[in-house]
Each structure stands twice: as structure tokens, then as C-alpha cells.
Design brief:
The protein is about 25% helix and about 35% strand. The protein is α+β, with helices and mostly antiparallel strands.
């Protein structure tokens, strides 16, 4: 028996088995890492314009200004829009860039944003599963918001007109898709 050839054969088999195990480990680690990446982390890492397809079929295009675990702030050609992540059903192009999950903050909740807009009395456009409406936020509750409608609905369906009276519509927070401040860019110095 040629011991040198025998040892070479053993080393080759050992290297082959070790190589397969390493490839399997790399595949497992890659899958585990991907399984931990959230949409908000991918949006925070997005560069350039992104398209967000929302429940109901609308598509919003813009540059990501900020992204939290519950919303993303997009700047498009028509201004800034606060998009609820729960309303996003598709996003493209996202590429491979991802923000570290630990850097994605909870941020202020949508309720806090709505309360501040209510306190300032600004006109808003709210796109929700109930329709698209314009008005002033009248009150914010635990799971819904009252909007005093201006009568200038984005998509008229009759709910925004009550014989000249101000109509207040309650919208479930779970149904909100997009919020825009009318006539102005989103700004903390509002």
C-alpha cells in the first residue's frame, strides 16, 4: 500500500466534507441574517427614489427622508408624505443596502404626529382605507382620529358634504395609509 497516496486520498475526502459543511453553514447564516431584516431597515438603507405600493392600489414615489418601525417619511415631487409601514404592500427598488436593525428607532408614533398636527390646526390630506379626505384633525383617540372635513375631498363619495355643515369623520388608525400636510413641506419648524 502506498501510504502517501492513501494520506492524499484521506485529506482530499476530509477537505471535500469540510468544504460542503462550510457552504451549508454560510447558507444557514445568510438565511438567518435575511430573516432578521425588516422592511423599515431596507427603506432606511434605500438610496434614491423608491416606489411604495400601498393597500388599495396607489403608488407613492419619493426619496426616503426617515424611516421608523411604524412609518416612513417620503419626499416626492408633490411634497412630503408620512406613509404607514402597515399600509405598504410592495416596495422597489431597494437594492442590497440595509440600515443596521439596531439603528432603526421606534420614533414618535403616528398618534403623536396626528396630535401635533391637530394642535397646530393645519389642513391635511389623509389617504385611508375609508377614502381620501381633506380637513383638519379634530381629535386623536386610542385607535382612531376625527377629521373635520373641508368639503374638498380628494375622491368625492358624498361623505364630505352635509348641506354646508362641517362633517367630522372618524378614521381608524389601522386603516391609515398616507398623510400629507397641504400646501407646505413637512417641517419640524412648522
Amino acid at each position: 500500500m502506498d501510504m502517501h497516496a492513501f494520506m492524499d486520498e484521506l485529506e482530499a475526502r476530509f477537505d471535500e466534507v469540510r468544504g460542503r459543511e462550510l457552504e451549508e453553514l454560510i447558507d444557514e447564516l445568510t438565511d438567518a441574517e435575511r430573516a432578521s431584516v425588516t422592511l423599515s431597515a431596507r427603506l432606511a438603507g434605500a438610496d434614491g427614489l423608491v416606489n411604495l405600493s400601498l393597500r388599495g392600489g396607489s403608488v407613492v414615489v419619493g426619496e426616503v427622508l426617515d424611516s421608523t418601525r411604524s412609518w416612513v417619511l417620503l419626499r416626492g415631487t408633490t411634497g412630503d408624505a408620512l406613509i404607514m409601514l402597515s399600509a405598504v404592500v410592495g416596495a422597489w427598488p431597494l437594492g442590497r443596502s440595509v440600515a443596521r436593525e439596531s439603528s432603526i428607532r421606534g420614533g414618535v408614533g403616528v398618534g403623536h404626529v396626528l396630535r401635533e398636527l391637530s394642535a397646530r390646526g393645519v389642513d391635511v390630506a389623509i389617504d385611508s382605507d375609508c377614502g381620501d379626505h381633506r380637513g383638519v384633525i379634530d381629535a386623536v383617540y386610542a385607535d382612531h382620529v376625527d377629521v373635520a372635513l373641508s368639503g374638498a375631498a380628494i375622491g368625492y363619495d358624498g361623505r364630505d358634504d352635509a348641506c354646508g355643515q362641517t362633517v367630522s369623520l372618524a378614521l381608524a388608525l389601522a386603516g391609515l395609509r398616507r398623510l400629507r400636510v397641504l400646501g407646505q413641506r413637512w417641517s419640524p419648524d412648522y
